[in-house]
Specification:
Blueprint (H helix, E strand, L loop, with lengths): L11 E4 L2 E4 L10 H5 L2 E3 L2 E4 L2 E2 L2 H14 L8 H15 L4 E9 L13 E8 L7 H6 L1 E10 L16 H12 L4 E6 L4 E4 L3 E6 L2 E5 L8 H12 L4 E4 L11 E6 L3 E8 L2 E2 L4 H22 L1
Parallel strand pairs: 8-9, 8-15, 12-13
Antiparallel strand pairs: 1-2, 1-7, 3-6, 4-5, 4-6, 6-7, 9-10, 11-12, 11-14, 14-15, 15-16
Helix pairs in contact: 2-3
């Protein structure tokens, strides 16, 4: 399969306050964010030309920056407007958008308090995180030895670039063995999430999900919890041990990229996408479609 490099595409990227040609959106090799992971980012979906929960994502971007010790130099309203500019300039209707903020190249070293904070927003087509076939059958996960760190060892409430290094390592290892993704445990050995999505278990009709005390409480996660409660499902947030998969009937993931994705296998455990998962998949699709319809009226 021929890949189109992300640095060699047509279009525009919003960069430090204005739209510029895609190929001109460049940074120096001595950028602090590259060397020391002083960067925070978001992933945002666009459905029917409408940005889904963009303000919530941009608010989290600002909060993530504060956790890492810097202020993103734009307000949520300014970033919302920038995102709309990017969507309009792209001409895309169903897409994935990536806002990111990072420390620049003014200082090179662990301490870089006077570095300029840069912000860019790009958009591209990305219809599904997993193939439609895998998504309907249920994706395959393998538990990775890398674990989500404790809150007193890493900025776990921030969507920080550095926290995703172990995700890339874990996902690559899983893919090399024929799996779609990896399951991550936390520092205590409890179920945490996949490499880029939150996880839910269905046990005897009730929905259980790990308490997000050392990983992100995803925006899609919260959205799906609300949808489940409207359906009348009981949702329980608690500590979950890996051995509980043996008494679990359904498993699904939620995330901006993953949306609602059924899981068919985790290590030696097998699951069948059932009524609860399918109902929430339908409800989520209906929700984003209602947003699009309401915006068009």
């Amino acid at each position: 399969m021929s890949l189109i490099p992300f640095d060699d595409r047509d279009g525009s990227i919003w960069f430090d306050g204005k739209l510029i040609p895609w190929r001109s959106a460049q940074v120096h090799v001595l950028t602090h964010g590259l060397h020391y992971a002083s960067a925070v980012f978001e992933g945002v979906r666009v459905y029917g030309g409408q940005i889904f929960k963009g303000s919530e994502h941009n608010e989290r971007l600002l909060n993530s920056g504060k956790i890492l010790g810097f202020d993103v130099p734009y307000t949520v309203a300014q970033l919302d407007d920038a995102c709309r500019q990017v969507v309009k300039a792209s001409g895309l209707t169903d897409a994935y958008m990536r806002p990111i903020a990072w420390r620049g190249s003014e200082m090179m070293g662990v301490s870089a308090q006077q570095s300029k904070i840069h912000v860019s927003i790009a958009i591209w087509e990305w219809p599904s995180y997993f193939s439609p076939e895998a998504r309907m059958k249920g994706i395959r996960l393998k538990t990775t030895p890398w674990r989500r760190p404790a809150p007193d060892t890493a900025p776990t409430k921030s969507k920080a670039a550095g926290l995703y290094m172990i995700c890339t390592m874990s996902k690559h290892a899983a893919e090399n063995e024929g799996y779609h993704d990896a399951l991550m445990l936390d520092y205590r050995g409890l179920v945490a999430e996949s490499t880029g999505a939150n996880i839910f278990l269905v046990q005897d009709g009730a929905i259980h999900t790990p308490t997000p005390d050392c990983f992100l409480d995803g925006i899609t996660r919260r959205t799906v919890i609300d949808l489940a409660k409207k359906r009348g499902f009981k949702v329980i947030e608690r500590a979950i041990k890996p051995e509980e998969f043996a008494t679990t009937q359904e498993v699904f993931l939620t995330g901006t990229a993953a949306e609602v994705t059924p899981v068919g296998e985790i290590d030696q455990y097998r699951f069948t996408p059932g009524a609860v998962t399918k109902a929430l998949m339908e409800d989520y699709d209906a929700l984003v479609n209602r947003k699009v319809k309401a915006a068009a009226e």
